[in-house]
Each structure stands twice: as structure tokens, then as C-alpha cells.
Amino acid sequence: MVFKFTDMNSGGVMKSIYKTILIDCDNETEAIELFKARFDRHPRNVTCNCCGYDYTFVDFDSLEDATALDRMCQMSQDYKTFHEKPSTDEDAAYFSKFNKYVTFDEYIKLSTDVLVIKMVDAAS
Ligand SMILES: [Zn+2]
Q: What distance in angstroms lies between residue 5's CA and the mean position of ligand 1's atoms?
């Protein structure tokens, strides 16, 4: 599974240089442990009460799934699955990160604010 953590700018500040942190591991408990080991902070920490949690997170099946909308892939009607090709939807560019379709490798190369953590790397 892949857990996609998004910095919510709680209290008006980013908690690291990464807006998006993708953690590839087996379950939510592991994801939070890996997150804490790397950032010395629980993602559910609340820096500012009016803003809420420092990070939100959602789980996906793969890194490609987790970034499909950002990469402007063609999404299914319910946004649960996607095709690895440029979206033809009117608002796809708006919801994407670079206003164009990119592959996962290109997305990582172009993004300075995205960190990928894999359980195998973290353990070694
Ligand atoms: Zn606030």
C-alpha cells in the first residue's frame, strides 16, 4: 500500500520542505511509524487548533495510483482508478500539479516537494 501524506500548512507553516510524502509499506501503523522515524513528529499532531492536523493522509494501492490525479491521468468516474494516459477532462489540468500529463518518473523528477519512503529502504 501507499500512504499519501499532505502537509496541511497548519498554523501557516509547512512542517518540512515536502508538501507530499508518499510512504510505501504494508499498513497504516507502519506508515505512521516510518513517518515519525523520519520527521520526529506524529502526522496527527495539531500545531494550530483552528487548522487541525499537521498532515492528512489517504491510502492507495500503488505510487502510480497515489499520484494519478496530480499527474493528469485519465481518471474513472469515481476517481478510484485511472488510465496511464493524458486526461481529456475539462478540469484535469486544474487538478494536476504541472498542468500537463506526466509519467510517475517524470513527476518525481520534476517535484522538489515530494518525498518517497519505502519500507525496504527505511529498514536497511
Ligand atoms: Zn490555524
A: 19
Which grid coordinates belong to 75? 481518471
Ligand 1 centroid, distance to 103 Cα (angstroms): 35
Cell numbers linked to 47: 500545531
Q: Report the C-alpha gap between 113 and 96 in whole angstroms.
A: 15
Q: What is residue 48's DSSP assignment?
A: B
Whole domain around residue 16: which residue ranges?
2-123
What is the pTM assigned to this prediction?
0.92
The residues that bridge with 83 in the sheet, in sequence order, are: 74
pLDDT band at 74 (very low <50, low <70, confident <90, very high): very high
The mean pLDDT value for 87-95 works out to 95
Q: What is the count of structural domains for the chain?
A: 1
DSSP state, 28?
H
The residue whose grid cell reads 500545531 is: 47
Q: How far is the CA of 8 from the centre of ligand 1 (A)?
A: 10
